[in-house]
Amino acid sequence: MTLKIQIDDGAAPYEQVRAQISEQARAGVLPVGHRLPTVRGLAESLGLAPNTVAKAYRALEADGVIETRGRNGTFVAAAGSAAVRELASAAQGFAARALRLGVSEEEAVAAVRDALRAAFTG
User: Fold this and answer.
1) Strand order through the sheet with 35-36
2) Distance between CA 13 and CA 53 in Å, rounded?
3) What does the alpha-carbon distance between residue 69 and residue 20 come to, in Å, rounded to a whole number?
4) What are the φ/ψ torsions at residue 3 (nearest 5 degrees)?
5) What are phi and psi of 36, to 5 degrees?
6) Which of 22, 23, 42, 66 is the most exposed place for a label (fewest CB within 10 A)?
7) Cα dihedral sign for 101, 102, 107, 108?
8) Closest CA to 1 of 69, 63, 70, 56
9) 3-class DSSP state for residue 67?
């Protein structure tokens, strides 16, 4: 696992850690079941505070990208399981809200496309 933190980047260091691990897991660079370094170990190797790495790990776990197995460590989670369930739940909530607002399906889909475009580009 190779992570690079850019101090002059606009993104917070924890977000850079989160995004890089997430991308490497999604791309298969970090395969399912790969054991991640301890919070302290990764913090030390990156020159970050342990709380910064812990925050990134918590966000990754909430996203279903990684899973903590107690004293056994932290591992890359099976692709999609928790993340796909959470995404489906969010989509159902969005669809119900769009219906309550009285917008058309086309308007709702356009709003999602705009939000995704903004999120992924920056």
Assistant:
1) 35-36, 74-76, 66-68
2) 8
3) 21
4) -125, 145
5) -85, 160
6) 23
7) positive
8) 56
9) strand
Q: What residues contact residue 106 under an 8 Å CB cut-off, 6+ apart?
A: none
% of the chain exceeding 70 in pLDDT: 93
Is the whole model's pTM more than 0.85, yes or no?
no
Q: Which fold has domain 13-76?
A: Arc Repressor Mutant, subunit A (1.10.10)
The DSSP H or E segment spanning 74 is: strand 74-76
Residue ranges covered by each domain of the chain: 13-76, 81-121
Q: Cα dihedral angle (19, 56, 116, 79), rounded to 10 degrees?
A: 80
pLDDT in tens, 40-92: 999 999 999 999 999 999 999 998 899 998 889 999 987 655 666 677 678 88
At residue 85, the pLDDT reads 65
Please give the structure tokens belonging to residue 24.
Answer: 């490497």
